[in-house]
Amino acid sequence: MILEAATKVIEFGFNKMKLNRIEAPCMVENIQSQRVLQKMGMKLEGISREKYFIKGKYRDMAMYSVLSNEHLQN
Fold first, then answer.
1. How many other C-beta atoms lie within 10 A of the C-beta of residue 49?
2. pLDDT at 10 exceeding the cut of 60
3. Alpha helix locations (H) across the chain?
4. How many domains does the structure of the chain reveal?
5. Alpha-carbon span 39 to 35, nearest angstrom
6. Can you give the residue range of the structural domain that contains 48?
7. What is the reported pTM?
8. What is the pLDDT of residues 13-57, one digit of tens each?
9. CA-CA-CA-CA torsion sign (3, 11, 65, 73)
10. CATH number, domain containing residue 7
11. Which of 21, 23, 53 is nearest to 37 (CA)?
């Protein structure tokens, strides 16, 4: 269900808003979120160390993105 909804958001961004790039950060330890982003065709760009202060400590964030031309290939 989450994957379907997120895929619709990406399609809207590329098809209706004519975006070139969509990105999504998630905490490095959140493996399930990373898997969802990968299933949506997003690629890992890198890790931002101690990027955000969440729940009492600084968290490393994984940055994922997909480009419009990559999305069309899927």
1. 10
2. yes
3. 2-15, 31-39, 68-73
4. 1
5. 6
6. 2-73
7. 0.87
8. 999 999 999 999 999 999 999 999 999 999 999 999 999 999 999
9. positive
10. 3.40.630.30
11. 23
